[in-house]
């Protein structure tokens, strides 16, 4: 967990430290109390078991002395102590019983305390002859009670529990039988346990313990009275008694604690005590408190660790949350900036858009204006053309009409005068003029042609053949021959074009007539027509060796009513009509000025193939 400390983390961390400091001690005390309670529970069990084991062990022997005291031979011996053989017999019997019961030693005493027979009669420390009148078990038994005493054997120097029973003879007490039980085996069972057991006498002197070094040490102060009382019964024979400098205290949970100095240092024990009044014993179970204290410390440490882990996790989460919020704030700010910018841009765009719209509106208005101006101009042009045409028409018609009137008036006068021939000539002239006006009218009709009339596939040679008779008088008058050179169409078939045959004929008549006009009166006049296929086009060129077209008027020769020919000769409509007809065919007509003089009209038409060939009709 990575934590970068911030100022706002200091307060919670400080609080957590304070909580740790404030709770560590009470928590330790509390946990120690709990551990001590557990320890005390175990001590209580142990103590109960130890006490019942002790009781059980000694209870086994309790009634045996009284039983043995009733033995006849023993009774006889205390009656007659000087009887050596009897003494031997009793010695042997006691030895046998002792061996049988597993006790330490059994012996019989006279009322003065002298031992007359003993199970250890053969041993160097034999009790026989010894006097143990100072022992309370003797005095108690002699008084008719039960003699009970625990002590270190003055002769054997072995600790034991003594049971004394009176030997009775006819209601009198004639001696005391003593039965000593060795307590070492009991003590042996305590060794190696993880707890300590001490048994103290009424003076607080340890009589039994699982620790050999504690035996004969007093856990109470060894006062004069205590020492005197102990010396009186010679309970511990000649053993030197010492004090164990025990410190008593009260642990958590009110448990009694005893601290004992030991070679490895002072050791603290939790002590549980039970009195065994029937034996004048106090049994203590001592449990080392160290493991419990360590357990308590570990538990507190674990709890505090948990607490700190929780605190650190909480801090980390807080920081993460804070970082997240900061990031959100930054994002929000970025978003707002972006939105603001987008808003600004949108406003800019809207402004630009608005201006564009305005411009578009302005443009449209301008365009409308332009169109209107254009249409006005067209209208004006049309009117001008119409005016021009009207002027030309009136000019063209007025002259023959004037001539017709003059001829008619003249014819009238000639008829009056009887000059019939002349009058007839005049009428013929009138007829010629009317004819000319009819031709003019027919030409004008061509302006009202139908440009979209369906086209056909036409054999060019045929059209030229049909044209020849029409232009023959004109060519003859000009003294010229028409030379033709017509190429092949596709697959060596006739040269075919898309056109209307009559209109194409009209175009050719116009062009050839113009050429004839140009060469008329010139020496060696020549007109040559060549037709050739070039890809999907067919080019028809009509060249003459006339004066050619002056560059200044070349751009105007296709305009209607443009003519350089004199009045009554040219109408100025031939090329203009031809131009429009050729355009209707999808072709073109233009003038080229070839080297070597003369003029050449180039007629370009869309080529057709034999497949498209129907029977021509227009
Ligand atoms: P028109 O023949 O009645 O004058 P066109 O429109 O046919 O009218 O011809 C216009 C003019 O073009 C002619 O007046 C003439 O000046 C000129 N032009 C046409 N063809 C030729 C040509 N082959 N050589 C010289 N000038 C020509």
From TrEMBL:
Catalytic activity: ATP + protein L-histidine = ADP + protein N-phospho-L-histidine
Domain Histidine kinase: 392-609
InterPro entries with a match to the protein in the record: HATPase_C_sf (IPR036890), HATPase_dom (IPR003594), His_kinase_dom (IPR005467), HisK_dim/P_dom (IPR003661), HisK_dim/P_sf (IPR036097), Sensor-like_sf (IPR029151), Sig_transdc_His_kin-like_C (IPR004358), Sig_transdc_His_kinase_DctB (IPR017055)
Main location as per UniProt: membrane
Keywords: ATP-binding, Cell inner membrane, Cell membrane, Coiled coil, Kinase, Membrane, Nucleotide-binding, Phosphoprotein, Transferase, Transmembrane, Transmembrane helix, Two-component regulatory system
Coiled-coil ranges per UniProt: 321-376
An example Gene Ontology molecular-function term: phosphorelay sensor kinase activity
Highest taxon, organism lineage: Bacteria
Entry's EC annotation: 2.7.13.3
Membrane topology summary: Multi-pass membrane protein
Subcellular location: Cell inner membrane
Group of enzyme by EC: transferase
Record field: transmembrane: 296-317
Keyword flag Transmembrane: yes
One annotated Gene Ontology cellular component of this protein: plasma membrane
Cited function: Member of the two-component regulatory system DctB/DctD involved in the transport of C4-dicarboxylates. DctB functions as a membrane-associated protein kinase that phosphorylates DctD in response to environmental signals.
Name of the protein: C4-dicarboxylate transport sensor protein DctB
Organism of this sequence: Paracoccus siganidrum
């Amino acid at each position: 967990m990575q934590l970068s400390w911030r100022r706002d983390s200091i307060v919670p961390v400080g609080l957590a430290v304070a909580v740790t400091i404030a709770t560590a001690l009470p928590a330790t005390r509390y946990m120690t109390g709990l551990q001590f309670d557990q320890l005390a529970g175990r001590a209580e069990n142990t103590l109960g078991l130890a006490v019942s084991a002790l009781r059980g062990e000694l209870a086994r022997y309790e009634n045996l002395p009284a039983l043995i005291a009733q033995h006849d031979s023993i009774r006889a011996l205390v009656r007659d102590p000087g009887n050596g053989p009897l003494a031997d017999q009793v010695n042997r019997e006691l030895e046998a019983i002792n061996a049988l019961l597993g006790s330490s030693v059994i012996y019989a005493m006279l009322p003065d305390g002298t031992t007359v027979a003993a199970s250890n009669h053969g041993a160097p420390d034999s009790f026989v002859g010894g006097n143990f009148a100072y022992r309370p078990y003797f005095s108690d038994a002699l008084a008719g009670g039960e003699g009970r005493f625990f002590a270190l054997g003055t002769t054997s120097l072995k600790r034991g529990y003594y049971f004394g029973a009176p030997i009775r003879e006819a209601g009198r007490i004639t001696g005391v039988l003593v039965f000593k039980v060795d307590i070492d085996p009991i003590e042996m069972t305590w060794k190696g346990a993880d707890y300590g057991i001490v048994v103290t006498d009424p003076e607080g002197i340890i009589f039994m313990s699982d620790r050999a070094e504690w035996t004969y040490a007093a856990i109470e102060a060894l006062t004069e009275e205590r020492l005197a009382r102990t010396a009186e019964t010679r309970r511990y024979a000649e053993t030197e008694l010492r004090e164990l400098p025990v410190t008593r205290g009260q642990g958590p949970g009110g448990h009694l604690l005893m601290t004992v100095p030991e070679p490895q240092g002072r050791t603290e024990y939790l002590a549980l005590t039970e009195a065994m009044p029937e034996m004048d014993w106090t049994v203590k179970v001592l449990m080392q408190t160290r493991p419990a204290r360590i357990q308590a410390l570990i538990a507190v440490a674990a709890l505090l660790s948990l607490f700190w882990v929780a605190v650190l996790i909480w801090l980390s989460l807080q920081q993460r949350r804070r970082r997240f919020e900061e990031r959100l704030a930054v994002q929000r700010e970025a978003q707002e900036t972006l939105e603001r910018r987008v808003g600004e841009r949108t406003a800019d765009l809207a402004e630009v858009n608005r201006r564009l719209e305005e411009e578009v509106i302005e443009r449209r208005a301008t365009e409308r204006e332009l169109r209107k101006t254009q249409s006005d101009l067209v209208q004006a042009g049309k009117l001008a053309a119409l005016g021009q045409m009207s002027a030309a028409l009136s000019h063209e018609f007025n002259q023959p009409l004037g001539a017709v009137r003059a001829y008619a008036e003249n014819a009238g006068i000639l008829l009056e005068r009887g000059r019939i021939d002349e009058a007839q000539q005049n009428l013929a002239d009138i007829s010629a003029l009317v004819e000319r006006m009819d031709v003019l009218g027919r030409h004008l009709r061509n302006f009202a042609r139908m440009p979209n009339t369906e086209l056909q596939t036409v054999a060019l040679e045929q059209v030229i053949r049909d044209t020849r008779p029409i232009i023959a008088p004109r060519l003859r008058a000009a003294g010229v021959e028409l030379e033709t050179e017509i190429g092949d169409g596709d697959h060596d078939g006739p040269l075919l074009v898309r056109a209307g045959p009559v209109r194409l004929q009209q175009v050719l008549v116009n062009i050839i007539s113009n050429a004839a006009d140009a060469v008329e009166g010139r020496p060696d006049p020549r007109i040559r027509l060549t037709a050739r296929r070039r890809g999907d086009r067919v080019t028809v060129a009509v060249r003459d060796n006339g004066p050619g077209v002056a560059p200044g008027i070349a751009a105007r020769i296709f305009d209607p009513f443009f003519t350089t020919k004199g009045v009554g000769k040219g109408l100025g409509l031939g090329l203009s009509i031809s131009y429009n007809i050729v355009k209707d065919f999808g072709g073109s007509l233009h003038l080229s000025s070839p080297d070597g003089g003369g003029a050449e009209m180039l007629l370009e038409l869309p080529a057709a193939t034999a497949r498209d060939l129907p029977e021509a009709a227009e």
